[in-house]
Amino acid sequence: MNPTYLEIAERIGARLCRDALWHSRRCNWTADFLDGETIAHSSLGPDLYEGTSGIALFLSRLASLTGERIFRITAEAALRQALDRMPIPGCGLYDGSLGVLYAAAEIHHEFDEGAVLRQAEPDPARLDVMYGSAGAIAVLLKLRLREAAARHGDLLIREASRNDQGWSWKSLNSHRNLTGFSHGAAGIGWALLELHRATGEHRFRVAALEAFRYERSCFSPTERNWPDYRGDTAEYPVFWCHGAAGVGLSRLRALEILRDEELLVEARIALTTVREHTPSISNFSLCHGQAGNADLLIYAHEALGDALEGAERIAQEGYDRFEKRHVPWPCGLPGGNETPGLMLGLAGIGYFYLRLADPAQIRSVLLPPCC
User: Fold this and answer.
1) Which of 28, 116, 141, 304 is 20 to 30 A from 22, alpha carbon to alpha carbon?
2) Eight-class DSSP state of 322
3) What is residue 35's predicted lDDT score, i.e. its pLDDT?
4) Is the pTM of this model over 0.90?
5) Residue (of 83, 89, 124) closest to 102 by Cα position
6) At 126, phi and psi to the nearest 5?
């Protein structure tokens, strides 16, 4: 365990505990958010992405490494707040009811099977990791509810758009079906491959490889990256949500399962792109910032034995420019203030330092283990 990184995570956790707003045995935080084209401010919802369950998950894992009681107490109170707001729409991992129940299961090491299954109904309008079935598969496999997970896998197979380039899915409004992890084929392919591994069902392996084949057809050799089709023209960001960082995570995990040389080649391309095109220091978030890209480098250390130098450089830069100088961390909302949530803010930045302190114990929240 690296005590320097653990100390940074503790400092961030302490600030989250200090800033929590308490009522009875529950707590919450407030944060900026984008309301149309305007930045507004409000209390947090319960979701894993930027709500109280995501903060609870970070503080709980911080408590497990440090033994500090205040982290555990605040995590439990934040989780109570999230559970009191249930149910919420959707079955996705990061934005939906199953994400909240996943956090609860991780923190309490138990879960209410009936409550999970009630929130796990497949919805053809919600297919991706963020909002829908791909994220639901990850949660249900983690909780060993394989039949429910398979129902989501079969929905993804039925809803796939199929052509000579492979299989893809309609998730967000875009001029072409998306690549990438959060809303696109990389994340859906990863979930289907985890389902194949858990069930042994060949159809899920076929569907996963078709998803990767679609992304292969979209790959730009010039950019050495996979496109984001949300705008009028393709762009090439290098993030977990869209672009090489998330695609790289999906291929590294697929490589662990299938041991396929083509997957290794794609993983290496993604790693090179991330190392050469780190995002602006004005964003240190997990979703689309420095911490999220560094998570891929940590995973490459675990899966391939690569050096941690790149992730450690990012960690040192963050410490020198923000933590050491006692200035706000740059979070994932452009033009917004420092925010507390997991995927856009402080909890996620703290999670990155906690993971770097002890990768063996603190698993990635961007590619959560499914078993």
Assistant:
1) 116
2) I
3) 75
4) yes
5) 83
6) -130, 105
Q: Prior bond to 359 cis, omega within 30? A: no
Rg of the chain on CA atoms, in Å: 19
Tens of pLDDT, residue by residue over 222-232, are 999 999 999 98
Contact 250, 224 (CB under 8 A): no
User: What is the Cα–Cα distance from 185 to 357, expressed in whole angstroms?
Assistant: 31
| Segment 267-271 long-range contacts (CB within 8 Å, at least 24 positions apart) | 267/300, 267/304, 269/224, 269/244, 270/244, 270/245, 270/296, 271/296, 271/297, 271/300, 271/306
> CB neighbours of 354 closer than 8 A, spacing ≥ 6?
5, 6, 9, 58, 61, 62, 65, 362
pLDDT band at 258 (very low <50, low <70, confident <90, very high): very high
Residue whose C-alpha is closest to residue 159's, from 148, 149, 170, 151:
170
193 backbone dihedrals φ, ψ, rounded to 5°: -70, -40
CA 246/CA 242 separation, integer angstroms: 7
**Per residue in 188-199, pLDDT tens?**
999 999 999 999
Tokens at 35, concatenated: 């309301």
Dump pLDDT digits (tens) for 127-159.
999 999 999 999 999 999 999 999 999 999 999
Residue with token string 């993983």: 267
Closest CA to 367 of 155, 141, 174, 201: 141
Q: How far is CA 338 from CA 9, 110, 176, 332, 334, in A?
A: 16, 33, 34, 9, 10
pLDDT tens digit string along 280-328?
678 999 999 999 999 999 999 999 999 999 999 999 999 999 999 999 9
Task: Tell me the torsion sign for CA atoms 312, 367, 238, 289.
Answer: negative
Helix (H, G, I), strand (E, B) or coil at 104: helix
Reported as a single tens digit per residue, the pLDDT across 82-91 is 999 999 988 9
